[in-house]
Amino acid sequence: MRKITLLMIVLVITAVSMAQAMTGIYKIGASEVSPNFTSLKAAIDNLNTVGMTNNVVFEITSDLLETASSRIGVNTGTYSVTIRPDADVDRKIKFNMATDNAKASGLIIIGMTADSWDNMTSPQNIIIDGYAVGGSTRRLTLATTDAANIYH
């Protein structure tokens, strides 16, 4: 029994230590693979879970269809989180959620980690940038469908 308990403790410690805080540039797109992400929600959920040790940039590599809200609630401190296109081509993040959240609505909710006013946080330096590095035209569009908008 002691050996099994010790083994479980070692496995938990190993799993926790492998989840490293985010830093640098991550790609988000339909065909991306780890350590990148296939949805904005997955990337932001990971950021909220593991935190950050320096600036984090999420580069959108394809059009995205998001079916659930992304909540940025991580304590950014002096670092920034930037969402931008990866290239000087049009990219769209479209929000298509079948039902509304009980509390805050939207594609990207800044300052909340769950659908409860009790989970308010104060992240800073959240940048949604329409320009790719070296680009001269705004290329990132955030959109919603009529079905995802309670005011249509």
Beta-sheet strand percentage? 25-35%
Q: What percent of the residues sit in helical stretches (DSSP H or I)?
A: 10-25%
Chain-averaged pLDDT: 84
Strand order of the largest sheet: 1-2-5-8
Structural category: alpha/beta
Our Rg estimate from Cα atoms comes to 18 Å
Q: What's the end-to-end separation, in Å?
A: 60 Å
Unreliable spans: 10-18
Query: How many helical elements?
Result: 2
In oligomeric terms, what are we looking at? single chain
Q: Tell me the overall shape.
A: globular
Descriptive labels:
4-stranded parallel β-sheet, 3-stranded parallel β-sheet, globular, 18% helix, 152 residues, alpha/beta, 2 helices
Describe the structure.
The protein has one domain (21-148). The N and C termini lie far apart (60 Å). It is α/β, with parallel strands linked by helices and 152 residues long. A four-stranded parallel beta sheet has the order 1-2-5-8, with helices on one face. It is built from two helices and nine strands; from the N terminus they run αβαββββββββ. The chain has helices at residues 2-18, 40-50; strands at residues 22-28, 52-60, 64-66, 70-72, 81-85, 91-95, 108-110, 126-128, 140-144.
